[in-house]
Amino acid sequence: MGGVPAWADLENRKKSKRTSSDSDSDDEEDDLLCRTGNFITSSESLPRGILKVSTCIPANQERFANGKLVTVQFHPSAQVVMTAGHDRSVSLFQVDGIRNPKIQSIYLESFPIYKARFSMDGEQVIATGTHHSMFFVYDMMAGNIIPIPKVRGVEEKFLRNFELSPDGSFMLLIGTSGYLHLLSMKTKELISTMKVNGRCTASAFTPDSSKIYSYSKEGEVFIWDVRSRKCLHKFEDEGSLEGKCIAVSKNNQYVACGSSSGVVNLYTTDVCLKENHPKPVKAIMNLVTSATCVTFNPTTEILAVASRDTDEAVKLVHLPSYTVFSNFPVFRRKQIYLTQSMDFSPRSGYFSVANNKGKALLFRLKHYSSF
């Protein structure tokens, strides 16, 4: 309609740049085109098959952990990543993909770390130990390390596994003998205790923090109402001999259950809430040893599944086609080793894997334009 518009004609633009003294408007035009380009790429859905990915230097290049690295997690709002390990240290690094400079490390004496997590406001780090009934809170704003002694009403010899609610209100301690202890994030005091049949191995909050999915060693999933602490529903994970890990997608569409057989069953949440024996939309069978870690990326386009029992046992599954990206990991070059923890950055630009060699491997997912 009316030929090529002036802004799309490169020859005309070059001439006008040479003849016009008012180059500012051209710069603004170029900026607009660049910005529009970014917006277009980030709004397109992720294609299946081959994942555009590049390997960066490890996120903790400036301070590798001495021994097993149990946690890697991206900060909820800053371009920062945290690592924690059995060497009793918690470290923070700025993520630029080039040098990843260290911000700081803290050391918890006689406290090998089992798990560490950022609080939802990003101002605290909560860390539990491998053989302790207490845990630590590191207040990053004040620079204080606060020990939280044995919580009154929680009769547990060790406090290890825990989850934090997305709204920042609750901390869920996964105890022994099927007990789940719901704590207030503000006071770190016990609110209520729930109990599943058998032993609970993993739990996950829904994105709106209204429900908790608890996965038992016997392969049953219990769905709890956070407000009333009542069990709303229970279903059996198909074919599960022993439950290992569970995750709920950020858009609340999917629940992923990983078991000792290596199978990760992917369900839609609406089916999980209604049926006692729901059929998974996909059974992911790419792992040959226990599925010990499952996590969704923030846009619910990738499900990462991993096993800590075999080297290089990480797979990235494309959603909603339920197909595995064929080019990850790179088999010719061994680098991942035994996966202990995984995380995606807030806008999926980066993916990190913590391994048993003390490294937090870092990968740039090129489809996503920002951190």
Question: Quick recap of the structure?
Answer:
9% of the residues lie in helices and 40% in strands.
Q: Give me the count of strands.
A: 28
Low-confidence stretches: 10-42
Quaternary assembly: single chain
User: What percent of residues adopt helix (DSSP H or I)?
Assistant: under 10%
CATH homologous superfamily designation of the domain at 70-195: YVTN repeat-like/Quinoprotein amine dehydrogenase
Indicate the CATH architecture of the domain at 70-195: 7 Propeller
Please report the first level of CATH classification, the CATH class of the domain at 70-195.
Mainly Beta
Mean pLDDT: 90
What count of helical segments does DSSP give? 3
The largest sheet is:
4 strands, antiparallel
Which band does the percent of strand residues land in?
A: 35-45%
The strand order across the widest sheet is 1-28-27-26
Q: What is the global morphology?
A: globular
- The termini sit apart by 39 Å
Q: Which structural class should the secondary elements be placed in?
A: mainly beta
Radius of gyration: 23 Å
CATH topology of the domain at 70-195: Methylamine Dehydrogenase, Chain H
